[in-house]
Design brief:
The protein contains nine helices and seven strands. It has about 325 residues and is of the alpha+beta class. The protein is rod-shaped, with a radius of gyration of 35 Å. The two termini are about 60 Å apart.
């Protein structure tokens, strides 16, 4: 699907480039959802766009994230988000800015998430009076998104911490939850660092001399730095939670081992007495006693009770 914001603030929607009657539109923004090769060829033919950054975005070189030419500046951002199964995944977003306007490429899945979370996004874009304002809005939106998703993760981690530390309720499954949150935090941190790097490179680029939004990008960089501190704090909190749960599990296991020790001692002594008097020796004086049997029973009971009383006084039976 293709969405086009004209300079007269009219929004047009097309299913394919073949539906667009004019190849030269007076627009601020063109957004392509799940773009196809046909659409990219159409853009290359009519607007002279270079899609090198979209073809090599999986490379680790910086040119796969920010690429500047005489006619355009290209950006690739990795955006982490929670999918329908509440699993953190990443989707690429490409922004190409030229003298004609801004071109935005994203997936339908990611755009659905954006539209659900930011109902005023379209209105904010429409309120921009020029292409420069729309271009600046992309930086602001990405920065705000990282702040929001980090805050969302922080709330989930805080709720988990409350359940573990305050309510003292936990299970071994909590370690899996902590591992998941750590992975989510790592994805956000990695994407945020790359975004900060792209912002910094843009501020030093020649293209910045054309758009002159350096001051605005600098403010967003400051915000991203603050978000990075929150992410670092989330890592520390998760590490503390993991250590706390591990310690509680160790204490629980130690209690189990103590209980097994108490049971073993309490059972072993009566078993020892029964074993001795179960021997088939001819000369065993106790066998001829009138009260030999009850004496043996009492000895067995006492041999079980005395260790139990001892361990209870030592508070081994308390968890």
């Amino acid at each position: 699907m293709i969405e086009i914001l004209l300079k007269n603030k009219e929004c047009l929607t097309f299913q394919a480039v073949s539906d667009i009657s004019s190849s030269k539109l007076d627009f601020h923004l063109m957004q392509f959802h799940d773009s196809t090769d046909v659409e990219l060829d159409w853009l290359s033919e009519n607007y002279g766009l270079d899609f090198t950054i979209m073809k090599n975005y999986e490379d680790i070189e910086i040119s796969s994230h920010f690429l500047e030419t005489t006619y355009q500046a290209s950006f690739h951002f990795s955006i982490p988000y929670l999918d329908r199964e509440k699993k953190m995944v990443e989707e690429p977003v490409f922004i190409i800015v030229t003298k004609d306007g801004v071109f935005l490429f994203s997936s339908c899945k990611l755009d659905t998430v954006f539209n659900e979370a930011y109902s005023n996004k379209i209105r904010s874009i429409q309120e921009s009076s020029d292409t420069e304002g729309i271009f600046k809005f992309q930086f602001e939106f990405i920065s705000d998104y990282f702040a929001d998703i980090t805050e969302h993760q922080s709330k989930k981690i805080k709720t988990l911490a409350s359940r573990i530390l305050i309510e003292k309720e936990f299970s071994k499954e909590e370690l899996d939850v902590i591992t998941t949150y750590n992975f989510n935090n790592l994805l956000i941190k990695e994407a945020l660092l790359e975004t900060s790097r792209i912002f910094t490179l843009y501020m030093k680029s020649n293209w910045e001399q054309t758009t002159r939004i350096k001051e605005s990008v600098s403010v967003e960089l400051t915000d991203l730095s603050a978000v990075s501190d929150y992410i670092h704090f989330n890592f520390e909190r998760l590490d503390d939670l993991k250590e706390n749960v591990s310690n509680k599990i160790d204490l629980e296991q130690n209690h189990i081992f103590k209980m097994l020790t108490v049971v073993t001692v309490c059972i072993s002594l009566p078993t020892f007495i029964a074993g001795v008097y179960g021997m088939n020796f001819e000369t065993m004086p106790e066998l001829e006693l009138t009260y030999g049997y009850p004496i043996a029973l009492v000895a067995m009971i006492l041999s079980a009770l005395l260790p139990f009383i001892y361990f209870k006084k030592k508070k081994w039976l308390k968890q």
